[in-house]
């Protein structure tokens, strides 16, 4: 297969949904189609007691939320799919945000009984920043759901995107009969209790086929009448509008019953964009370029307790990774040799021989890689648009056992490299201040410090209410500011100068007093 064919067959996407809509279940079924799992039921398996390969953290299991981002690669028909998992809890939106910079399309899963929910609205806002194409799956049709037309109206009104139904549901709940495929003019009949397998689904060709009346009785005529209405009231699928993020193809089904998931995957296969280029500080880089480039959107420490390491997740933007190749790391302007990148086949890590634009590779990080880092084949540019957000909540962290100061600092710096929390070390004292965007992150930090670094820590109140990264082009003025404002200055985990303000008023005054200094709320890596 040629280089271009390898790139063109890749589809890199993430699922966006509200908690409980069925993201985990659909992931499990999608993997079943990819033959990546022999038998679905191992991704979460709350009941069976088996745990997902991506659910590696105890906290995650206890709380039933997915904190980490993992990557799964599997083949589906002609394409090779990379599915990036996004954390489900809203406290981790920063992480999710960065993950969404690494995909080319998204699958939006909606609980058809509930309709559009809060977290979906937020995530759609994020996808809008890059006009990411969206495929929609209306899930849980085996339950009593809302009316299908209402659901489409709601998506159009609230999420401001046109809906093009590709399949249409017949009945719902106990009376769910299946779906009619508008483009294929075929009805697929649903049988319950088949969720753990890839079903032999019975299909009836042609809407006027008398077989249909035999199979589903009065529902057949109802469907015919309904379709006239649907065709009149909804949008036809248009590929350009889909690629522009203006229209979403909509599929109906049940993830639990593994019904309709393959229709959605066929849509992804046929319509979702191949790996897209990305903008850099210098120029647009296209996926068709044969020279390697990529950016790090996520770092995770201790992914696998057995390995005790830190992995940097790198999205390849152009070219090809080959084992042992040299890469140029732009931020430190150094050439590095990468001999042991990882791939993520259904959550298992495997040593990688080669990977192409669109793929995610895991790089071992011994402290020299940061989120947002760009790797190239020698050209000096940086990928744009991978931000850190200033935290809004702060606590001082203190040890129960004072002898472990070194481990504490090491743990905090490693966790801050992941980008989930930030650590600040004031210039004038030995405090360690943890900053987070959401409350839950504080608990995660303490649990992980204990589990992974054997450090017992607790929090205390600290008089900090906001932080800003500080920059100034004029070295002399920066030095002057550093001297005068030292009480409010700290270094973050990456040694960047930060202004930590006890109040917003204090921050405003500082901004007025030092007009030459930039106080930044986000920092592009
Ligand atoms: P999430 O990752 O988006 O949070 O959702 P998840 O897949 O965990 O699904 C949330 C709940 O909804 C689960 O039930 C799951 O079994 C159920 N579910 C998912 N898809 C369907 C569907 O198509 N039909 C029906 N009826 N239910 C569905 P749970 O009771 O919380 O967990 P479990 O005990 O079943 O594992």
Which labels suit this protein?
Alpha-Beta Plaits; 14 helices; 525 residues; single chain; Rossmann fold; binds guanosine-5',3'-tetraphosphate
Structural category is: alpha+beta
Number of helices: 14
User: What is the CATH architecture assignment of the largest domain?
Assistant: 3-Layer(aba) Sandwich
Which molecules are bound besides the chains?
guanosine-5',3'-tetraphosphate
Binding site for GTP: 17-24, 85-89, 139-142
Pfam families: EF-G_D2 (PF22042), GTP_EFTU (PF00009), RF3_C (PF16658)
Family: Belongs to the TRAFAC class translation factor GTPase superfamily. Classic translation factor GTPase family. PrfC subfamily.
Keywords: Cytoplasm, GTP-binding, Nucleotide-binding, Protein biosynthesis
Tell me about this structure:
It comes from Paraglaciecola hydrolytica. Belongs to the TRAFAC class translation factor GTPase superfamily. Classic translation factor GTPase family. PrfC subfamily. Its main location: cytoplasm. This protein is an alpha+beta fold. The chain has 3 domains: 3-53 and 101-271, P-loop containing nucleotide triphosphate hydrolases (Rossmann fold, 3-Layer(aba) Sandwich); 278-376, P-loop containing nucleotide triphosphate hydrolases (Rossmann fold), CATH 3.40.50; 390-524, 2-Layer Sandwich (Alpha-Beta Plaits). Strands 28-25-27-26-30-31-29-32 form an 8-stranded antiparallel β-sheet. A 7-stranded mixed β-sheet has the order 2-3-1-4-5-11-6, sandwiched between helices. α7 (210-216) packs across α8 (218-233) and α11 (405-417) packs across α12.
